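Hello,

Our lab assistant flagged a job as stuck in the queue for most of the afternoon. It eventually completed. Since we weren't sure the result was trustworthy after the delay, we are filing this so someone can double-check. Below is the sequence as submitted and the structure that was eventually returned. Let us know if re-running is recommended.
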Amino acid sequence: MTPVEFRKLLLAESLTHPGLVRKTNEDSLGFFLESGCFFVADGMGGGSAGDIASSLLENQISDAIEFSGGESPEVRKNKIHTAIHDAHLKIREYAETRSFAQMGTTLALMLFNPWNPRRADLCHIGDSRIYRLRNNSLNVLTRDHTVGAELEREMMSSDHPEKGIGDHRTSVFSHVLTRVVGATSNEPEAEWSETEVRSRDRFLICSDGVTTMLAEPEIQKIISESGRPDEAVRALSESVLKAGAKDNYSIIIIFVGDLGLPKSDPEETAFY
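-- returned structure --
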């Protein structure tokens, strides 16, 4: 048994943009098609602190995951775990030497399994999200680590009538992070989960600069109607800008081909 070649099974595109209000883009992203690893990091801290925090995390994960496509899923997960820990320490050291109080970053990462392309691991910290579009239905695969999301989960479990506390578009509580890389002395607690991958699935990884501006039905419509990942990325970006783009935003779109019939040429794979 040999590991899969992701370039034969996946089509993907990415974009990161400062938006229309902020002068600095504090988002970073990782795009490793050959290794089947994609992630978005949304920095926080203001000034140059946020972009440095997300960049430190990006560099640590990139060094750990690049050229790792032939390794086992557990080895790759352990490398990412170590990378997050090391980035946390570097962010804390940088912040402490400059008296930055709130320097940190979120993470939303998708790691396809090179030995079983029908499975993928998800790792996230904070409020950047991973979505899956399947059969024209959009579902979020991550749970926001925010005060708003936790309050909403508590209210839903107790049949409380108020909803929307975790909605990025309407609630200030949805932006108060309960987990973050850096920012506090506490070790960042990454939430790992596994998801099934099917032929012709489409995935979106994004920072909250997207979900603050666009409602999920609009996101679903754009991805459903796009023929290729680059079209979806461009259409989502245009919609975010049209809505005001009040924050930095990052987008990664992944189209899964026919998992049962990988072709020798990635352009020949049935993605549609």
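-- support follow-up --
The delay was a queue issue, not a problem with the job. The result is valid. The first strand starts at residue 10 and ends at 17. The two ends are 28 Å apart (CA to CA).
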